[in-house]
Amino acid sequence: MKSGNSSVVTHIILLGLSADTSIQLVLFHVFLFIYMTTVAGNTLLIMAVNSDTRLHSSMYLFLSNLSFIDICYTSTIVPKMLMDFLVSRKSISFTGCLMQIYFYLLLGESECLLLAFMAYDRYVAVCNPLRYNVIMSIPTCARLIAIAWMTGGIISSFDVLFLYRLIFCGPNVIDHFFCEAPSLAQLSCTDIYVNNIIMFVGSTLLIFCPVVLILFSYAQIIICLVGLRSGHLKSFSTCLSHLIVLILFFGPVTFMPRYLVKDTTYKIVSVFYTLVTPMLNPLIYSLRNKAVKQALLRLGRGADFIFIP
Q1: In terms of CATH architecture, what is 11-303?
Q2: Which single residue of 21, 35, 192, 265 has CA 20 to 30 Å from 53?
Q3: Residue ranges of the G-protein coupled receptors family 1 profile domain (predicted)?
């Protein structure tokens, strides 16, 4: 039997969130609403940033990319999950499972780095306001975004390559509502010790490095603000939205690791960071940002002008 050959196991069965058919239809409508709200909210935020020249700065370029990642992130998981609520046999092809893992890791890892770069952007804005446009120029911001995407792409490619090289010849059931790299690796008929080490080291570094940059950035921000008059503390308000998003993103991932919680609890946590957090991000940034709210209002008036006779 050759490594990387999936001729024995061609499909993966996903047990989903619940086996109780009576609540699956309810969950379908709830998650469909969340998904539609996520896509609509993040799309509006991207359109508002792109349509308003006053928002063409590094901060809002980061924000529009975050919204784009959130749309793709939820779209990698939710459509398949919604379909599974309506069918009795919840399965996905082996290739489809690998593709879902690839995009899930790519987008999650890219967002992790993007949030770290956004923290550094806030540090420069608060501590070096006069040099902000020079240090965080649009070309610099574009390069940082490219680094986030490239790093996510490289790491996720290696993870999926290691999974593809495993031999799958027996169990094909994953107790989750989407394919995850550790869960799929557990189904392998071969020794996954090396794979587990590689995935653990990779995921640890991927979280550790951005967290270090985030902690450094906010430590410097606090140092800059210490001793200033209360009026100057308004500059810190631009960081509050980002702090809330950081807590929503890193909280479940950092403090609820897979091996410390029960399957049911882990599924609930997974719902939070795959559905709820992407839905809340545009609300958090728009409600706490006057410039974004004004851009959304102008966008709405423009839509009225175009579509209403």
Answers
A1: Up-down Bundle (1.20)
A2: 35
A3: 41-285
